[in-house]
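Subject: two folds for Thursday's group meeting

Dear M.,

Sorry for the delay on this. The cluster queue was jammed most of the week, so I only got both jobs back this morning. I'm pasting them in the order they finished. Each block is the input sequence followed by the predicted structure tokens. Could you check whether the formatting survives your parser before we put anything on slides? The first protein is the one we discussed after the seminar.
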Amino acid sequence: MTFFEKIITTISYLKQPAKRRMIQIAASLNGQTGIEVGGPSAFFSFKSAFPIYLYAKKIDGVNFSNHTLWEGKIEEGNLYTYYKNKKGFQFIGEAAELKAVKDASYDFVLSCHSLEHVANPIKALKDWSRVMKSKARLVLVLPDKEFTFDNKRPITSLTHLIEDYNNNTTEEDSTHFEEVIALHDFKHDAFVQTKEDLIKRTRLNIKNRAVHHHVFDLELVKELLIYCGFEMIHQQTYPPFHLVSVAQKQ
């Protein structure tokens, strides 16, 4: 971290109480190595709510494809540029199956607005736990449905997520497609404006991964993480539409 970045982060800490706990946790990971699923993310960058990019020694990344709606074209290799000249290894692989990553490789795992796009969240979280060292931290950011196009949809139950895991649900799952289309709030979606476009995008989900399979609130996230063997450290909402949870591998 440069002197300028340190000064700005300190000012942000003092002037914005809602950021303080997140900045403290980011600073506690100083000099550590992590992996981000579905990044890079502005939420973890300089002047953000959780500026872990400033503190980490190195962060690798994993994305499901060589081309995504959010990152465009990407390639596997030492090409994961998450902040200025900071680079890690870019993996190409499913979020729920980090096959190329060895056990107990990382001090922390980051995921920002990614897990809702995964059809089998428990499978993903268990595999993320596998690549984490003992007592490693998970920083999980999910959309607050009240301020997104999911605001008309019901919160998913933990029972449903467990059923998905027990049934080994894959990324080709279309269980929630009808609900997604019927209850979509177009006022909160900058990418699709019509129902026809939404139907087309949803049907192509295996390629674009735009669907939010499940809908979360902080209570569900807490239940889910505890079920997957994590200990909760911190939870909060953060504007404009973030649900922030930090947990530790037990």
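Second protein, same layout:
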Amino acid sequence: MLYVFIAALLWSTGGVFIKLISLNTFQLSFFRSLLSALTILVIFRKQALLFNKMTFFNAMFYAEILILFVLAAKTTTVANAIFLQYCAPVFVFIFEPLILKTKFEKTNLITIVISVIGMILFFSGELQPGDLNGNIIAILSGMAFAAFLIGMRKNGPQYQFATIFYGNVLIAVICSFSLFKLETLLIGDMIMVTYMGIFQIGIAYIIFSYGLKRVNATEASLISMIEPVLNPVWTFFGYGEIPSINSIIGGIIILIGLGYKALRGNTRTNEEL
């Protein structure tokens, strides 16, 4: 549980650094993913190089997740970006029964309805410039996240770290064109992006995977919810960004829906045992 908590804590620091770093979306993504890929390669070596067709397929979805999230966080508020991306399980509940032929459960429908109500709040009220586009991008990131989760379930666990490695390599390749427009690289930007690549993405994912093997999925899901909760908090204290009331209420509703699903799933499993 401590490993999952530390991983979620590291992930939650992403938003404030995305805001503070002066690099554009693609430049930031290039350096962060390059360093993340190197971190995973150094630690796992041959295991990071394993691959099959699904590995590259899932790596593409992983690349979409990270690039779209950075773009969303640069465009709208971090709170909007992280909470809307966190709707990924909702899309999993919708498409998993169709793709993996799993049973559609009543709790899934309740969670979907609750989360959709929360999502609607992000598009209501007085939107700041960029909020609409950023919110849409964040939802697309969440959809890519859902596709990634479904794809990872269809692939073998031995390809887990390889998928993340190739996904980060793909991001670095896609975003390499942005270096032509890079005039100067500030020391402060490089320090922050180095932290993000090595710790906020690379080490955090490794720690989370290690902890996930030792706790059940419900515990991991509930503990991981500190990421969307703390992300706007760090951004407020570090960058001064204040999310709208509608965004805060919508985010709370989404977390309630996901928490309900996690707890109901755990109750059902205990009853079956």
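Two things I noticed about the second structure. Residues 54 and 155 are 6 Å apart (CA to CA). The chain has one domain: 2-266.

Cheers,
T.
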